[in-house]
Design brief:
The protein has 220 residues and is of the alpha/beta class. The protein is built from nine helices and seven strands, in the order E-E-H-H-H-E-H-E-H-H-E-H-E-H-H-E. The model has no long low-confidence stretch (mean pLDDT 88).
Length: 220
């Protein structure tokens, strides 16, 4: 946190004096500033920040979108158990704008707020790091909660070994060590199985796969 932070009209430098000035507690503005810094460090897209709350009404237009909402709430309500058990979630489906990334980021944000190291990584970046940045790919391998977004959006030829190698290197390690992984993709289940054979069996019961159908919320 920058030493230049001045706080708000209710505090001084982010702290409020209580007990006749004997103690200082963090102001809401300082807690918000710290959370924003943590979200940036975890690569949580800033354009999503205002939407990462389960108490905000959403335009649920399909049974699957409603089930995704309930599934996210249940995951967050049982966050400690899910993190310690290494449980994750895979939201997939070819329809874009159905809320898959938003709901995964809601879980990731909850983990950050609870103090767990977490990071959101785009699938193309993971493949790039796998090829040329071992330090970064190993950091993603070991972070307590990892979200992998845009799976399938790699622009790599089907015969390339890098996507499959990346899955093997990252996911096998995380599954073996009980590290929770969130995954998002715009591929249909059949497309995913065709592109990445054998990966679903690797996920076992710890990362349930949920197929999301519905309308594009961004067009409403």
């Amino acid at each position: 946190m920058s030493d230049l932070f001045k706080g708000c009209e209710k505090c001084s430098g982010g702290y409020i004096r209580i007990d006749d000035g004997k103690r200082a507690v963090e102001c809401v503005c300082l807690r918000r500033k710290k959370l924003e810094a943590s979200l940036r460090e975890a690569n949580v897209y800033e354009s999503f920040w205002s939407h990462l709350r389960l108490d905000i009404p959403t335009p649920v237009k399909s049974p699957e979108q409603g089930a995704m909402r309930r599934m996210t709430a249940e995951f967050v309500n049982n966050l400690k158990h899910n993190v310690t058990s290494g449980n994750g979630l895979f939201l997939t489906g070819e329809a874009k704008g159905t809320g898959k990334t938003t709901h995964l980021l809601i879980i990731l944000k909850a983990a950050i707020e609870a103090g767990y190291p977490a990071h959101n990584a785009a699938w193309p970046d993971l493949i790039r790091w796998m090829i040329s940045d071992k330090e970064e790919i190993d950091r993603m391998r070991d972070v307590r909660m990892l979200m992998i977004d845009e799976i399938g959006n790699d622009g790599i030829r089907a015969e390339s070994e890098f996507p499959q190698t990346t899955f093997d290197y990252v996911l096998r390690h995380r599954m073996a060590r009980g590290l929770p992984t969130l995954m998002g993709s715009n591929l249909s289940p059949l497309e995913f199985d065709s592109r990445y054979p054998g990966i679903k069996s690797l996920l076992s019961k710890r990362i349930p796969v949920f197929y999301v159908k519905g309308v594009d919320w961004r067009q409403l």
